[in-house]
Amino acid sequence: MNEILLDRRVRTAMVSDSLDVVGVRNNVMNSSIQALRPEMRAVGFAATIEFEPSSEFDQRDPYGAAIDFLDRLNPGQLAVVATGGRDDSAFWGELFSAAAKGRGATGMVCDGPLRDTEAVVGLGFNVFGASNRPIDYKGRMRVASVGTIVICGGVEVHPGDAVIADADGVVVVPKIHIARVFELANARAQSEKSVLKDLLAGKSVREVWDAYGVL
To answer: Can you state the angle between helices 178-200 and 205-212, rounded to 10 degrees?
Structure first.
């Protein structure tokens, strides 16, 4: 699968419910990870990068590993930045966002701090992080790995997993479940449209539940 076949009406809650159906019950990232703006939504295939504490850096090329990561992003990918939840520095800002957007990435999720947040919003790039902090990672953190399995926001993320992020949070769909979970989520979005219409028309919750099995 090289594209996300997900209805625009599908929200993270619908994807999470669909994961429950296939028996994956803990693939929602920590609630600390939030969108920079409530209207932000990002869907893409995970491209992973992991940071670790370090005071050492290459004086001539201090951002080399991150630059390589950004330059290898492909259209439809979503950057997943794993920091161990550390607060030592920011891990993503305006220029990284511009580079990722220019490469066709759909967004970025990070379990550490962000910076340049107003500028990032101005770029129209969908970014999700745990907090804001203006300090640079050079001499404080370094890239430990790229393109490996990481833990981000308490969830194991494999390269190529599907990631869906919106105002409610971030959900990760393992590769082996993408087709089925998206099928279920798309069907749920269609059902919820009918459920909403019936509830607003005054039908009882029991009536609607018995008809659709969705709440």
So the answer is: 150
- 8 Å CB contact between 152 and 145: no
185 by Cβ neighbours in 10 Å (0-12 / 13-18 / 19+) ranks as: buried
Range of the domain at 138: 28-173
Give residues with Cβ within 8 angstroms of 141, minimum separation 6. Answer: 51, 52, 53, 54, 83, 86, 88, 89, 91
Indicate whether 14 pLDDT > 50: yes
Q: Is 171 exposed, middle or buried (0-12, 13-18, 19+ CB in 10 A)?
A: buried
144, 115 Cβ separation under 8 angstroms: no
Residues 119 and 192 both lie in one domain: no
pLDDT digits (tens, 9 = 90+) for 89-110: 999 999 999 999 999 999 999 9
Number of domains comprising the chain: 2
End-to-end CA distance of the chain: 30
Query: In the chain, what's the furthest Cα-to-Cα distance?
Result: 68
Q: Are residues 78 and 113 both part of a single domain?
A: yes
